[in-house]
Every structure is written in C-alpha cells, then in structure tokens.
Amino acid sequence: MTIHKKTGLFFGTFNPVHIGHIIIANHFAEHSDLDEIWLVVTPHNPFKKKSSLLPDHHRLEMVYRATKDFEKIKPSDIEFKLPQPNYTVNTLAYLQEKYPNREFCLIMGEDNLKGLHKWKNYELILKHHAVYVYPRITPSVQTVQVSLDRIFKVDAPIIEISATAVRKDIKEGRNVTPLLHHEVWKYIDEMNFYR
User: Fold this and answer.
1) How far apart are CA 64 and CA 193, in angstroms?
2) Percentage of the chain modeled with pLDDT above 90
3) pTM of this prediction?
4) What is the pLDDT of residues 91-107, one digit of tens each?
5) Helices and strands: H and E segment counts in the chain
6) Residue 134 lies in a domain
7) What pLDDT score was predicted for residue 22?
8) 131 is in which domain, residue-wise?
9) C-alpha to C-alpha distance for 25 and 187, rounded to whole angstroms
C-alpha cells in the first residue's frame, strides 16, 4: 500500500510573506497530522490591475528565503504554470495527478471559510480534500452548510499581522524588521520594494 504524505496547501499572494504566515505554517506542521506545508504563491491575475502586487518571481523568492530554515515548509510556484485566471479546484486536480502519493489538504483562515460556498466546485473540493482552519479574532458566522466532517479547526495562535499594514509601514519609513524574516527584509530593502 502506498504511503500518502499529507500535504497542507497554504495559498496566498505573500506580498510580502511575514512572520505571521510562517508562525501559522509552522504551527500546522508541528501540531497537526500534516507532514508538510506548501506555501503556494498565487500569481498575479492578468485580468486585474494590482499595482501594489510585486511580480510573481519576487514574491516566490521571499517565500523561499522565509522558509529555507524550515524542513517541513516549502515554497510552491505550482499555480504559475496553470492557465489564468485559475481556480483552486483546478490546482488541486493538477496536483493530485502530478503527485498521486500525496494527500492534499487546504489551510485557510476562519474568515475565508465563510466564503467557501462561493468557490467554484466547492462541493467537489470538500469531497476529496480536508480543510484545516486557523482561528481569527472576528468570530466566524455560520460556516459552510456542508460536510463539516471534512473541516478541522486547529487551535493555532491568532496572528493579526497583515501584509497590507507591512507594506504601508515600509512606505512610511517605519521599522518592520520584527515582522519579517531577516532575509526577506534584506531582499525588500535591497530591491527597494513597497517604497
């Protein structure tokens, strides 16, 4: 029988990746039955104008730098290779085909869980993939009216750091070094990003 490696997929623009992302990913790697966490960098949607979003390869580089010291956390550019705009259901189908010996699960915040029923083919996602949820301060309204046996709430630390606030602070010349992996800050500083 094939051993299935349980892989948690943590999607995000990671613009930039900050310590909150890493704390959550590491918590799932160490306190759940997931063997590995992939930080899946979401590509820039070509149909949307988003000037504050750094090019894909720069955001991937920052995720690589932020995760290189963590054995169980990996950067992933899997969505860069898929046609845009892309849907999670397509990414999951592609991954399952490419890595048949892995069991892919989704990691998301409680706030995103509320909108899961609006996702393309969300019933199909829940049929084949478990969803691991981390808490947010804002209490969750009734979540998805579906098979809740596929949804697991993990008692993770509540992290209220936003990439938007980090970008704003950088633009305004504030010290953000406690919020970023030192290699990530070094890269942002050298490349003069978000200023």
Assistant:
1) 17
2) 67
3) 0.90
4) 999 999 999 999 999 99
5) 7, 6
6) yes
7) 97
8) 5-158
9) 21
CB 115 within 8 A of CB 140: no
Closest CA to 18 of 179, 187, 157, 186: 179
Residue 174: inside a domain: no
Give the CA distances from residue 107 to residues 50, 98, 167, 180, 182, in Å, rounded to whole numbers and listed in that order.
24, 20, 24, 21, 25
For residue 123, is it within any domain?
yes
Alpha helices in 140-194 (DSSP H): 163-171, 182-191
Backbone angles phi, psi at 56, to 5 degrees: -50, -50
Q: Name the token pair of 188.
A: 């942002």
What single-letter DSSP state applies at residue 116? Answer: G
pLDDT digits (tens, 9 = 90+) for 109-132: 888 888 888 889 998 999 999 999
Average pLDDT rounded to a whole number, residues 180-193: 97
Name 189's bridge partners.
none
Which whole number is the average pLDDT over 163-184? 96
What residue type is assigned to position 117 of the chain? H
Identify which of 95, 141, 81 has the alpha carbon closest to the alpha carbon of residue 116.
141
pLDDT at residue 85 in the model: 81
Round the average pLDDT of the chain to a whole number and report it: 89
- CA pair distance 17, 1, nearest whole angstrom: 37
Q: How many structural domains comprise the chain?
A: 1
Could you tell me if residue 12 is inside a domain? yes
- Torsion-angle region of 192 (φ positive above 0: left; ψ -120 to 50: alpha; else: beta): left
